[in-house]
Amino acid sequence: MAISKVKQVMWVSSGVVLGALIAVGTNVWADKETQSAPENKTIPLQELRAFVEVYERISTDYVDQVDDKQLLEGAISGMLSSLDPHSAYLPPVDAKSMEEHTRGEFGGLGMEVGMEDGFVKVISPIDDTPAQEAGIQAGDLIIKLGAEPVKGKTLSDAVKIMRGKPGTKLELTVVRKGEDAPLKMELTRAIIKVKSIKQRMLKDGIGYVRISQFQVRTGQDLQLAVKTLEQENGKPLNGLVLDLRNNPGGVLTAAVEVSDAFLNDGLIVYTEGRIRNSQMRFSAESGDIINGKPVVVLVNEGSASASEIVAGALQDQKRALIAGRDTFGKGSVQTLMQLNNGAAMKMTTARYFTPSGRSIQAEGIAPDVEIERVKVEKVDTKIERVKEKDLSGHLEGDDEKKQANGVETKQDTTDGITKETAEILEKDFEINEAMRLVKTMILAQQLK
Q1: For the PDZ domain, which residue ranges apply (predicted)?
Q2: Residue 36 bears catalytic tag
Q3: Is the dihedral of CA 255, 257, 261, 265 positive or negative?
Q4: Among the three residues 132, 167, 193, which one is the final residue of a domain in this structure?
Q5: Which one from 305, 332, 346, 439 is the annotated catalytic residue?
Q6: Are residues 217 and 121 in the same domain?
Q7: Are residues 166 and 227 in the same domain?
């Protein structure tokens, strides 16, 4: 009798679900028909019956009683997360957090993450955040959040655990390539205020701009950063290093504006998807902010999405030299769609392509000049080298003559740069190499 009742309920539920799907499906396909006239779709009745049967079995047979809302939200979440690592169901609280993220202020540990093989994969740590300070690296796999294993959790579940009250601590267990055993790191949650752009002068009139994330104002901030550098330099820049390392991406329009800032014309990026709204093309307008001077773009395995759009556009348009290591390879477009219950769904709707037609997805951008990750240490030379001026009876140089006559000469121990910049160039091999590449490009322009 009980089994019969369950079956009856199941078939009634099946009819309701099928009726709802047919009604919704008709509206969706009618809308698409005005755009691309797709082929007629058949409703997978067997699979829908299986869904209803599983739903009923869980409702009646599972060891604990489960709320219907929880079951249905789980089904929706599973449906989206099974598509790809970036599609997801966002309950109302998470939908609000997504908006905060694009504005550049949110709470948590400060890293861009995705899912891989059931674990949380770090796409990149964000500058000046607990994650970066603790030594989290792009490519790290987080296998435990505190005492809780990550396996079996959705990305939304993991993010909820990582976010929390500022000042509270969370221990992460991380698997890293090249390490024999998992690493344990304790991070203190904080309010993450992401400053999109930083700038400084390097040597010989070469500017340096670091973009840590693409936000709504990044394009405008880039313009301001270059003007600030030119004022500090006292004249137009001779060249520029644009640092996009460990930049996980962000707002598409910001990536387009940054690319456009260095181009006078030509295609920047285009997208292709199944619906008309996902097919877009973005082209540059006249106005190169550094008037054709050499640009080197630094990238690495943590450069993703919007970073790859910029690198791909400037590489294809022969406007910049790309240096570093292969980028992450996230070449898909996610659209945030609001739902009636206050939640949202983030769904992949298109793929990005560079101006030459290269797909970024799962391929990334290969640099023109590869710079391997190395550890640089200053060599402490105990024996001083002997120079001409150390030889007895040597001919005096101009500076020595001036000093002998009591005339002061300019001593510049840091080669015209601040002590802080000198330390950065000494420690960061990749910035140093990028600066040398810009110098070479400047020389090549002068020899034309």
Answers
A1: 95-163
A2: no
A3: positive
A4: 193
A5: 305
A6: no
A7: no
pLDDT in the model for residue 328: 95
Instruction: Count CB-CB contacts under 10 A for residue 198.
Output: 15
Helix 45-61 and helix 2-36, axial crossing angle in degrees, nearest 10: 140
DSSP 250: B
Does 360 fall in a domain?
Answer: yes
How many domains in the chain? 2
173 and 301 belong to one structural domain: no
Both tokens of residue 10? 């199941």
Q: Is 316 a catalytic residue?
A: yes
pLDDT tens digits for range 135-145? 999 999 999 99
Say which of 330, 332, 346, 439 is annotated catalytic: 330
Residues in the chain: 448
Closest CA relative to residue 324, chosen from 361, 372, 259: 372
Cα 439 → chain centroid: 28
Determine what percent of the chain is predicted with pLDDT higher than 90.
60
Which one is catalytic: 260, 316, 332, 439? 316
pTM of the predicted model over 0.90: no
Q: Active site includes 84?
A: no
Q: Find the domain containing 289 and state its range.
A: 197-370
- Which pLDDT belongs to residue 401? 65
Q: Which residue ranges of the chain lie beneath pLDDT 70? A: 1-40, 95-106, 375-386, 394, 400-416
326 with 180, same domain: the answer is: no
26's CB contacts (< 8 A; 6+ apart) are none
Q: Are residues 125 and 232 in the same domain?
A: no
List the CATH number of the domain containing 158: 2.30.42.10
